[in-house]
Amino acid sequence: xxxxxxxxxxxxxxxxxxxxxxxxxxxxxxxxxxxxxxxxxxxxxxxxxxxxxxxxxxxxxxxxxxxxxxxxxxxxxxxxxxxxxxxxxxxxxxxxxxxxxxxxxxxxxxxxxxxxxxxxx
Length: 121
Description:
alpha+beta; 3-stranded antiparallel beta sheet
């Protein structure tokens, strides 16, 4: 079970309504995004087990290794990879991906799909 916590900062309450939430391992690397600090603890979340990678390979018509760094970006604060592509996000919605997964863990953070797992501190 993953007990790690991931950080997300926002400037105002309006920004808390996003559907795709980018979180980083290191609070300091993302605190410049605002003063509202939220935490994601994946303890009870349904974590992606590779399905997004499989779906991205199909969507982008490429191999899994070729698209892996875009699905699991190395620096989530700098680039969100496929998670910034609205066409890919729509493809995931159309194929019920978000009905089965609450988040995906990246090398330096997480992409969260259900804000009920976010706690304001």
